[in-house]
Amino acid sequence: MLSYRHAFHAGNHADVLKHAVLVQALDYLKRKDKPFLFIDTHAGAGIYDLTGPWPQKNREYDGGIGRLLECPRLPGELEDYVSLIRSLNRHGPLQRYPGSPWLAAERLRAQDRARLFELHPAEFEALRAIFLRDKRVKVAQEDGFQALPSLLPPAQRRALVLIDPPYEVKQDYTTAVTALQAAWRRFPAAVYLLWYPVVRRAAIDRLERDLKDSGMRDVLQIELSVTPENAGGMQASGLIVVNPPWTLKPQLQGLLQFLADTLGQEGQGSYRIATLIAE
Ligand SMILES: C[S@@+](CC[C@H](N)C(=O)[O-])C[C@H]1O[C@@H](n2cnc3c(N)ncnc32)[C@H](O)[C@@H]1O
């Protein structure tokens, strides 16, 4: 089933959370000269034209990146991420929003590498076209869940893995944990980011239980909510961070507070940050 198109949601509050944390994690890995591998199991199209009919349907980006761009002052934790969005729109107002592959490629150095997986034929073609001339980036039209373990451990012995499925089917919650666990068993030292939407709290309770039963250690959980829990639709989204960089937790506190204040609808934003599994 491949009916999900990320263009409807590009730049919304969930993308802001995911991409701001992704940029922080990439910059942490760049503190050492040693190369690393970035893996995006569900890469999407790479760049989204916000003037197109799908993003325009609900203009979700207005409540996400749109609000951030209107802020006269941003906390330091958001500056790098927002400047990347500005650089993609350097000739005028917000018209394009990048996906995780483009953001990551902008942060990679000459010695780093990326492996991107995308199943949807049209999204894959768009992605492939972006990275045609970038020798650091390899793109494949394959199932990212299945491909992930085969890339681990990476030759570089350092990796950042983003697992960002569409959750169009309920099984994605369990498949994501199974794939994460399989990857972690092969390479426990990577930094793993697993994104999830909060639509039904029961699904997240189950996800947390599965993670606790997985044997993994050192797992951080963050969530950003923009409306009260019973408002319907996707009120919140979260990230599971396995092996969170030590700099990340203090940075996240300020970042989440700012995002809850700025993106919360009618003052109803909130966040949580908690150690789900200790070291
Ligand atoms: C949430 S979007 C990805 C967004 C992207 N990571 C970003 O942050 O910009 C999920 C993508 O996964 C793709 N997809 C669905 N199932 C997949 C699978 N098993 N393997 C790889 N890609 C898949 C969908 O076509 C969709 O483009």
Question: Can you give a write-up of this model?
Answer:
By secondary structure, the protein is of the alpha/beta class. It has one domain: Rossmann fold (3-Layer(aba) Sandwich). Helix content is 38%, strand content 19%. The chain has helices at 13-29, 53-58, 65-70, 76-88, 100-107, 121-130, 144-147, 172-186, 201-212, 248-263; strands at 37-40, 47-49, 96-98, 113-117, 137-140, 159-163, 191-198, 219-225, 236-242, 270-277. The strands form two sheets. The chain has an eight-stranded mixed beta sheet, with helices on both faces. Strands 2-3 form a two-stranded antiparallel ribbon. Strand 4 (113-117), helix 6 and strand 5 (137-140) form a beta-alpha-beta unit. Helix 1 crosses helix 4 and helix 8 runs parallel beside helix 9. The mean pLDDT is 96. S-adenosylmethionine binds next to helix 7.
Index terms:
alpha/beta; two-stranded antiparallel sheet; 10 helices
CATH class: Alpha Beta
Sequence of secondary-structure elements: HEEHHHEHEHEHEHEHEEHE
Number of domains: 1
Helix amount = 25-40%
Overall residue-averaged pLDDT value? 96
Spans of at least 5 consecutive residues whose pLDDT stays below 50 are: none
Quaternary assembly: single chain
Set down the secondary structure blueprint.
Blueprint: H1 13-29, E1 37-40, E2 47-49, H2 53-58, H3 65-70, H4 76-88, E3 96-98, H5 100-107, E4 113-117, H6 121-130, E5 137-140, H7 144-147, E6 159-163, H8 172-186, E7 191-198, H9 201-212, E8 219-225, E9 236-242, H10 248-263, E10 270-277
Parallel strand pairs: 1-4, 1-6, 4-5, 6-7
Antiparallel strand pairs: 2-3, 7-9, 8-9, 8-10
The structure holds S-adenosylmethionine (SAM).
S-adenosylmethionine binds next to helix 7.
